[in-house]
Amino acid sequence: MKETFRVLAINPGSTSTKVAVYDNENLLFEQVVRYSNEELAPFDSVIAQYEFRKNGILQMLADKDIALESLDAVVGRGGLLKPISGGTYAVNTAMLEALRLAERGEHASNLGGVIAKEIGDKLNIPSYIVDPVVVDELADVARVSGIPGCDRGSIFHALNQKAVARKIAKELGKSYETTNLIVAHMGGGITVGAHQSGRVVDVNDGLYGEGPFSPERSGTVPTGHMFDLCFSRQHTLSEVKKIIAGKGGLVAYLGTNDGREVVKRIEAGDTKAKLIYEAMAYQIAKEIAANAAVLSGNVDAIVLTGGLAYDQMLVKWITERVRFIAEVKVVPGEHEMIALTEGALRVLRGEESAKEY
């Protein structure tokens, strides 16, 4: 079997595309291609950008003297597909059609699989996506909400959560599939997942109002007050949705989504900033403890990850409340590019089989 695999990883964002090339787990280079509003203005949809973005990636590879023929696989960020279980998926015709039609919504991540397939097919090498945000492995009991027809769903930071879960499982001398972990991804949105034997059996919907509030999102709010807000005629439906995701949380209370700015205010003696920031830590700890109940107390470790995990104040507040459950491990930042690459490598090495959409 081949010992070294070269993987091209592609992670499209709304106004940029992260590109990285790895030889096995060793990073050769990583770069971000940024696009101005003027450059994107001619395109009437996200999917219409794919040729433009693909050409930018190919030019970058040429500038870095990366021969296309040296690549063994291309892996893209997964988009808004139908709910699927976690893992590495081969990009196939059904997936391409769903991404192109944006059946579940327009998002830049939809471009990941399309561009990967386009480049991979030209080189006759495989193309994949890994653990998109739509990964849904909820236990049946976790889907029941209390209102028929309003079942709980699963939208979360699956790529980074599963990547750090695998990392911590390895540190514990176990496999991901034999480990019980609680993983809290803390960024602009916050999701806390119960990872049981390789499946995320419960997780809060970090996009539309579940779980802890975050720098930009409201999290769970009192339902009656939300109804009053919706029917007050002071806000349109789109404005209410923006309050839930975009203008909620720290933005609503403190006017910023930057945790570093909040810490500076606290250090300068701002008591309101301290109360709100500590309340966010409090809610994250509550969500972690709730997931301990999901796992019947059988928790090998608690993992704090995402950009906010760099903040020692926030980590300390959370740790003080949950360390009675299990050891708290901190893996700060987002590890999306290596996570995409590792998903492809597991298939290339024969450790897993690529799943079909």
Automatic annotation (TrEMBL):
Enzyme class: transferase
Source organism of this protein record: Anaerospora hongkongensis
Protein name listed in UniProt: Probable butyrate kinase
Catalytic activity: butanoate + ATP = butanoyl phosphate + ADP
Primary location: cytoplasm
Pfam families xrefs: Acetate_kinase
SUPFAM superfamilies documented for this protein: Actin-like ATPase domain
Single GO biological process annotation from the record: acetate metabolic process
Gene Ontology cellular component annotations, sorted alphabetically: cytoplasm
InterPro entries on file: Aliphatic_acid_kin_short-chain, Aliphatic_acid_kinase_CS, ATPase_NBD, Butyrate_kin
E.C. number(s) listed in UniProt: 2.7.2.7
Record's keyword annotation contains ATP-binding: yes
Cellular localization per UniProt: Cytoplasm
UniProt family annotation: Belongs to the acetokinase family.
